[in-house]
Amino acid sequence: MLGYYFGKFDVLRGKDLQELDEIIQKNKEKGNEHFALAVYDDQLCEALNIGTPLKSIEDRLKIVQELSGVDFAFSIPSKDSKIVVAKAKEAYEKFLGNKEKMNEEQEKPKKYKIGYVPGTYDLFHAGHLENLLEASANCEKLVVGVKSDSLVQEQKKINPTISASERIEILRHFRFVDNVYQFYTRDPHTAMSWIESKYGQPADAMFVGSDLRDDYKRIEDINVVYTNRDLKNMSTRSSSGYRKKLQILGFAADDPNNKYTGPRISVKRNDIEKDEIEGMGYLEV
Q: Which residue pairs from 17-23 have beta carbons closer than 8 angstroms and sit at least 24 positions apart in sequence?
């Protein structure tokens, strides 16, 4: 049996991911082998009167299918049960077809034992994901560094839309993340010391975007690996770009008294302890 859960899945929030943990655990308790997310496409979001998502359907799918406990995700243009079941079957067959290839990729030897990837990760988006996946593909363990609120304010003269504690919680929910570290200084040596205290050695490599070469060019005692950051993609998929969209909607991201609480990842549902969860579907496979 396959269990799947409906939602918009646009701006990730820590509380919503914790609720999703409960749903995934309840799905497994029922004896269901797999779990998927059914993501509303843009047209369905409009039809349901929940607004156009900040992120494209392609980016929303890429992000949520990397969450721990989620086997795959698929888009739905309607909540009509026949359409949803057809989409679920199609996505499930594709998942099974790719499963062997995915297992082979995971078993390939990695270049580094431990990798470290620092960043702000505000309004987590597909650009963040691609950077982290590239690092993860080269490392047995991945430690993600999350910039503190105070350091964001010091560097960018703005407050992050999502607080550091919540950004940490969000990153902990990705299957490829082994640990999360909050940093308060731009000096990466402090992070290396913390990693060494946890794993008995500093990270073998620190991964940063290619657009940040000037920031790290003077560091010679840390192996800095630059991941590809496409400038065209960055112009449409960036925290600052999404923040501007929110400001147009009337939310001042840099005003601490007007924090954006965002569209929730969850849909209206019954108490999680009840046998049936509203927004949940099942498919015999």
A: 17/67, 17/169, 17/170, 17/173, 17/265, 18/169, 19/265, 19/266, 19/272, 20/67, 20/69, 20/173, 20/265, 20/266, 21/69, 21/173, 22/272, 23/272, 23/277, 23/280
Evaluate whether residue 161 is within a structural domain.
Answer: yes
Separation of alpha carbons 45 and 51, rounded Å = 6
Distance separating alpha carbons of residues 3 and 65, to the nearest angstrom: 14
**Is 226 in a helix, a strand, or coil?**
strand
pTM above 0.90, yes or no: no
Whether residue 214 is found in the same domain as residue 114: yes
The pLDDT tens digits along the chain (285 residues) read: 899 999 999 999 999 999 999 999 999 999 999 999 999 999 999 999 988 899 999 999 999 999 999 999 999 999 999 999 999 999 999 999 998 888 777 778 999 999 999 999 999 999 999 999 999 999 999 999 999 999 999 998 999 999 999 999 999 999 999 999 999 999 999 999 999 999 999 999 999 998 888 888 899 999 999 998 776 666 678 888 888 877 766 554 444 444 434 433 333 333 333 345 667 888 876
Together in a domain, 169 and 222:
yes
Q: How many CB atoms lie within 10 A of CB 211?
A: 14
If one counts the domains in the chain, the total is: 2
